[in-house]
Amino acid sequence: MKLLEDKILTDGIILPGNVLKVDSFLSQQIDAPLMEKLAEEWYRLFENEKITKIVTIEASGIGIACIAALKFGVPVVYAKKMRGANPSSDYYSSKIVSYTHGTSYNVVIPKMHISDSDNVLIIDDFLANGSALRALIKICENAGAKVCGVGIAIEKTYQGGADKIRNMGYRIESLAKIKKMDDIGGIEFC
Amino acid sequence: MKLLEDKILTDGIILPGNVLKVDSFLSQQIDAPLMEKLAEEWYRLFENEKITKIVTIEASGIGIACIAALKFGVPVVYAKKMRGANPSSDYYSSKIVSYTHGTSYNVVIPKMHISDSDNVLIIDDFLANGSALRALIKICENAGAKVCGVGIAIEKTYQGGADKIRNMGYRIESLAKIKKMDDIGGIEFC
Questions:
Q1: Which one of 3.30.230.10, 3.40.50.2020, 2.60.210.10, 3.40.50.300 gives the CATH number of domain A2-80+109-189?
Q2: ipTM given for this complex
Q3: Is B51 in the A-facing interface, judged by CB distances under 8 Å?
Q4: CA B14 centroid distance within chain
Q5: pLDDT digits over B12-44, tens only?
Q6: CA–CA distance, A166 with A147 (Å, rounded to integer)
Q7: Domain boundaries B2-180, corresponding CATH code
Q8: Which of A38, B86, B123, B127 suits a disulfide with B65, CB 3.0-4.6 Å?
């Protein structure tokens, strides 16, 4: 999606450690009108899937997921990060291991908010190694919900997470796909 | 706002300790179409204020703030909770003390995302004792931004936080105001 690629080129900042900072429009500050354009594109791509619920993960996924949910006319449920305690039986949960930070934590969704009658569209801002997305898919599958698709704003294709999940049979639609990125050469899209 | 009051009466759950659980439509699960109705009402109330930015706090405020931001055609910036470390000079910060949990933490907004040219509308899901709202107001004031108003979904008037802040001169528009609540008598609105 050219609009998003252009925004990344003008406002994204590449930090050491291969980090793309898009804090000014997608993360801590959210450009709501731009997010609406992304939402319209996901709606065009998934409108025939009879989506009943959008699933995302806190915190940076929530805004974009809610704007997408408006287009589909459905609710959003977001997975919470739960550090320390083990989740009770009231929750579907899945563990995320962060090799970068050397930590692990559970993400949880209350059982009352997702069921086998749901057709889920997962929405998130970033997809790199895919650990958060795999956790969300696992929660949906444990609930018996059907994952009809995944909408991602920015995919870093060179980290390989997305293609592994595509190979499992899931449809992932990323609106900007970064093939290569460094602080000298800049950003190259697929 | 009758629509919201009705939703609270049908789907809200009163838990011990005077907790109102609205998890099925306002917190972990977000009824996006309902939130759009709330956003339209805030737009009606604040449309003459030349709002340039919506400010909220993670995580449960983000969804409703983004939907409101769409109506105003402006970005959202949310305050992050920062536990442990002290914020660097790149952030405006304010401390929140939770007497319930016996903890305190800083909430922060990067200085680059708010400035003295902003007319801010603060949006949040709940207002009870007002500690989170006071922290957001303090951050805006430190940035030199003008707080033009506050939009709240559910205010618990009997906890007194809102009126103290109104007495400081801020305009708070709460769409459901709970005067009294207990697990026997149910919920009474103002």
A1: 3.40.50.2020
A2: 0.92
A3: no
A4: 20
A5: 999 888 889 999 999 999 999 999 999 999 999
A6: 12
A7: 3.40.50.2020
A8: B123
